[in-house]
């Protein structure tokens, strides 16, 4: 394990490498700030910060729900190829099993945040989220399927290299979302992107 002191030294050297003087006033605190920032934006490597995913027995609130649940939100991550930000919107859906469990709505966003807080590729990020949420629902009466779609802007594409604005779309579909065109179509109909 590399120490914090060593990491600060390495950041200083990196600053020198890009042509900076790490000792100038504006940069003196930068390695410290970067270390603190890394702890925050890379908390997804820390198993102790893994969100606890609350689930409820379907029917607990007096109704058994077996239609599609769709949730939408934003994500913010870093690409593992360039360590540059990619961010955008996600759409998540699942079909609860009437005998199984349902997800606490706020937990979906927490799982997205946790899985985003490490070096990622968008193709893996959609899978990581679906896998974590699938596990949380247990395998006795698993949901009939899950879907995750992400649309992200990648700064490694926009701020360097090709310098093109635009969104990348990645999806991960399981169960009915993968097997049934009708279910997939219903999910896609909830997605309103200009
Ligand atoms: Zn990249």
Written account of the structure:
With 194 residues, the protein is an alpha+beta fold. The chain has two domains: 38 residues, no CATH class; 139 residues, GTP cyclohydrolase I, C-terminal domain/NADPH-dependent 7-cyano-7-deazaguanine reductase, N-terminal domain (GTP Cyclohydrolase I, domain 2). The chain has seven helices and seven strands, in the order ααββββαβαβαβαα. The strands form two sheets. Strands 5-2-3-6-7 form a five-stranded mixed β-sheet. The protein has a two-stranded antiparallel sheet with strand order 1-4. A hairpin with a 5-residue loop joins strand 2 and strand 3. The radius of gyration is 20 Å and the shape is elongated. The mean pLDDT is 96. The site of zinc ion has 6 residues, from loops.
Strand content: 15-25%
State the CATH topology of the largest domain.
GTP Cyclohydrolase I, domain 2
* Overall pLDDT metric: 96
Identify the CATH homologous superfamily of the largest domain.
GTP cyclohydrolase I, C-terminal domain/NADPH-dependent 7-cyano-7-deazaguanine reductase, N-terminal domain
The computed structural class is alpha+beta
- Report the radius of gyration as a whole number of Å: 20 Å
| Number of alpha- plus pi-helical segments | 7
Stretches where pLDDT is under 50 for at least 5 consecutive residues are: none
Hetero groups in this structure are: zinc ion
What is the CATH C-level name of the largest domain? Alpha Beta
Following the backbone from N to C, one meets helices and strands in this order, namely HHEEEEHEHEHEHH
Major β-sheet, in short?
5 strands, mixed
Report helical residue fraction.
25-40%
């Amino acid at each position: 394990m590399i120490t914090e002191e060593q990491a600060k030294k390495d950041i200083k050297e990196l600053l020198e490498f890009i042509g900076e003087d790490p000792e100038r006033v504006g940069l003196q605190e930068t390695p410290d700030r970067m270390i603190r920032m890394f702890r925050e934006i890379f908390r997804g490597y820390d198993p102790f910060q893994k969100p606890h995913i609350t689930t409820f027995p379907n029917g607990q609130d007096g109704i058994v729900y077996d239609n599609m649940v769709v949730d939408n939100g934003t994500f913010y991550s870093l690409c593992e190829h360039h360590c540059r930000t990619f961010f955008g919107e996600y759409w998540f859906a699942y079909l609860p099993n009437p005998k199984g469990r349902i997800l606490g709505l706020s937990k979906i966003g927490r799982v997205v945040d946790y899985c985003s807080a490490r070096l990622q590729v968008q193709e893996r990020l959609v899978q990581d989220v679906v896998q974590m949420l699938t596990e949380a629902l247990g395998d006795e009466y698993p949901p009939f399927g899950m879907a995750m779609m992400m649309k992200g802007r990648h700064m490694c594409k926009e701020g360097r290299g090709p310098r093109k604005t635009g969104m990348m779309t990645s999806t991960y579909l399981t169960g009915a979302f993968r097997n049934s065109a009708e279910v997939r179509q219903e999910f896609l109909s909830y997605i309103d992107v200009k």
